[in-house]
Amino acid sequence: MNNKAKRAGAVSAGVLALSVCPSLAFAEEEAAGINAILPDMLEFIPMLIAFIILWIILAKFGWPMFNGMLEKRENTIREALKQSEEAKIESERVLAEYKEQLADAKAQAAKVIADARATGEAVKADIEAKAEASAHDMIEKAKATIAAEKKAAIAELQASIADTSVDVAAKLIGNDLTEGEHRAIIERYVKEAGSFNGN
Q: Which long-range contacts (CB under 8 A, 24 or more apart) does 59-63 make?
């Protein structure tokens, strides 16, 4: 027989012993006065025997079973507290990791922003330098073009003046000089007087 069967048998025996004893507690009251508060020996002895039997049964079987349930409950609570403490430690560790990762992410974001800002400033400076160099080149090319066009216009003007002067001189002095001679005189005069471009 296992422990549970033994305990059940002991409890049954206790209940049987209580039911066999005459139950005189509910008898009618016959005496008055001091006898009313003193127990009747015919009732007291069977009740005392039943109480002792019940106490022995409970001490041998009931209390260890009750004590085992208390210990089991205590162990369950202790284990739950231990698991709760472990879960708390783990959650604190995870929270610390999360905070560390968040701080790293913020630092990386700040570094990315700083790098992007520095790159933007460098690109801006490079664009401004290229634009300035391009504008300077355009100005220099424009100046060269203007100078070349100015020289061409002056040369064309000189040739036109020379032709006009030849025509005027020919009309004034007649046809004594050839056109080539007139041109040579005018060109010599222009060279001596200075050219139209200030040289």
A: 60/10, 61/6, 61/7, 61/10, 61/11, 62/7, 62/11
CA dihedral 191, 193, 194, 195 (to 10 degrees): -70
Tokens of 59: 């001490």
Helices within the chain (DSSP H only): 3-20, 41-57, 63-173, 179-193
This model's pTM is above 0.85: no
At 27, is the secondary structure helix, strand, or coil?
Answer: coil
Cβ neighbour number for residue 191 with a 10 Å cutoff? 9
Q: Are 16 and 53 in contact (CB under 8 A)?
A: no
Cα–Cα distance for residue pair 44/38, rounded to 1 Å = 10
* CB contact burial 81-109 (16+ within 10 A = b; e otherwise): eeeeeeeeeeeeeeeeeeeeeeeeeeeee
Q: What is the mean pLDDT of each run of 10 residues along the chain (199 residues)?
A: 55 50 44 69 88 92 88 93 93 92 91 89 87 85 85 76 65 62 70 55
**Could you give the CA distance from residue 24 to residue 17 in angstroms, rounded to a whole number?**
15
